[in-house]
Design brief:
The termini are far apart. The longest helix has 36 residues, at 67-102. It is globular and about 75 Å long. β11 (300-305) and β12 form a beta hairpin. The strands form 4 sheets. A 6-stranded mixed sheet has the order 4-6-5-8-3-7. Strands 9, 11, 12, 13 and 15 form a 5-stranded mixed sheet that branches. A two-stranded antiparallel sheet has the order 1-2. It is an alpha+beta fold. The protein has a single domain, classed as Barwin-like endoglucanases (Beta Barrel). The chain is built from 11 helices and 15 strands.
């Protein structure tokens, strides 16, 4: 005969909390016994446990909010994520079913709707000797589902293999309920926010007026670092998140593209004039651009040089052979001329001087 309390939901919840408390106490004791170089407290509801790959729940978060709000928050996140995953899966299944019957197999494989997460250099950095090693954050490579590799094989696409990432209207960060429930400290840690990316929204300055584009890019283009991402998920470089105004678990459309024109010239705006003081900055630029298969106008791309990260606005793109203005170009295996325009910090100084002169003129007129 089954015990009446064996499957009581309240008993199950209390047992789970007891197990979590025991695990947290054990990990704390282990961390205390082991020598550590530094210790820091975080407002995040998760803290890093060196004995495991996964974060351990912090019970202070539970004590601060109480049991019911804690469980309600956990339930809401899990429910929203499950419904979102199912909606994406249904959309992709409908696409495969409709295109397989009316078009080629390539069309059914070359497009997917995906949930996006930031690309982590610790998990996705290729082994030493591979060209993209050490350039996960300073390149345009993405981790994509295996169907895109099958699309490349079926279509016999030539290198560089490029993929267009498009925002899905109505499913943006402002409408992403999962991210609205995500603590800011956790989001910042996932994204590695800092430096120019902390305030950069999308496109940089254009012309003589320095301003941030209030509307993020609707699409961007990049290559693939591998094809081992789970179905319905894609991992994008962090600069693509900021340029497109994305947050973790936003929804995007990804498509294999073969019609991107080759580039003939690109204009970049450094965020800091210190990069232009490097004696061989043009050679450094040409070397670092090799880690980008394509460029998108209005994006913010990073380069690394001697341990320092530099950021650039992609101001202008021209395609070969006529030099026409285009929003995207491929740069791999192309003879592309790169030039710099006035840096952001210099423009800020010029604008400050102009405002100062205008104030002085108004004062004299009065």
């Amino acid at each position: 005969m089954r015990h009446p309390m064996m499957f009581n939901p309240l008993v199950v919840v209390l047992l789970l909390l007891l197990l979590q408390s025991t695990a947290a106490a054990a990990s704390t004791a282990t961390a205390t016994a082991a020598p550590t170089s530094s210790s820091s407290s975080s407002s995040s509801p998760f803290h890093y446990d060196a004995t495991t790959r996964y974060p351990t729940p912090n019970l202070s978060y539970l004590r601060r909010e109480g049991l019911l709000p804690y469980l309600r928050r956990k339930w809401d996140r899990a429910q929203y994520l499950a419904l979102l995953e199912q909606a994406v899966e249904d959309h992709n299944a409908e696409h495969v079913a409709t295109t397989s019957s009316s078009s080629s197999v390539v069309d059914s494989l070359s497009y997917r709707r995906c949930l996006v997460l930031p690309l982590d250099a610790k998990l996705f950095d290729p082994p030493m000797g591979v060209f993209s090693h050490g350039h996960v954050d300073t390149g345009d490579k993405m981790s994509l589902p295996k169907n895109f590799w099958n699309a490349i094989i079926a279509s016999k696409a030539e290198v560089p293999w490029l993929f267009e990432v498009c925002r899905v209207e109505g499913v943006a960060s402002s409408n992403n309920n999962y991210n609205n429930m995500l603590p800011r400290a956790v989001f910042d840690k996932m994204m590695g926010m800092g430096g120019p990316y902390a305030n950069a929204a999308a496109a940089g300055a254009t012309g003589q007026k320095l301003q941030q584009n209030p509307l993020p890019l609707s699409r961007a283009i990049g290559g693939a670092i591998d094809f081992r991402s789970p179905n319905n998920y894609a991992f994008l470089p962090k600069w693509m998140f900021t340029s497109m105004g994305l947050r973790p678990l936003d929804v995007v459309d990804i498509r294999l593209v073969t019609t991107t024109p080759p580039g003939s010239s690109v204009k970049l705006r450094p965020h800091s004039s210190s990069f232009l003081k490097i004696t061989n900055h043009q050679a450094v630029l040409e070397t670092e651009l090799k880690h980008y298969s394509a460029l998108t106008r209005g994006s913010i791309i990073p380069f690394d040089y001697r341990g320092e990260r530099h950021y650039f606005d992609v101001v202008d793109l021209r395609c070969a052979p006529r030099g026409e203005w285009v929003p995207m170009v491929k740069v791999q295996d192309c003879d592309i001329a790169a030039e710099f325009v006035r840096s952001r910090d210099e423009l800020k100084k010029i604008m400050a001087e102009k405002r100062k002169k205008q104030k002085q003129k108004q004062t004299r007129d009065e």
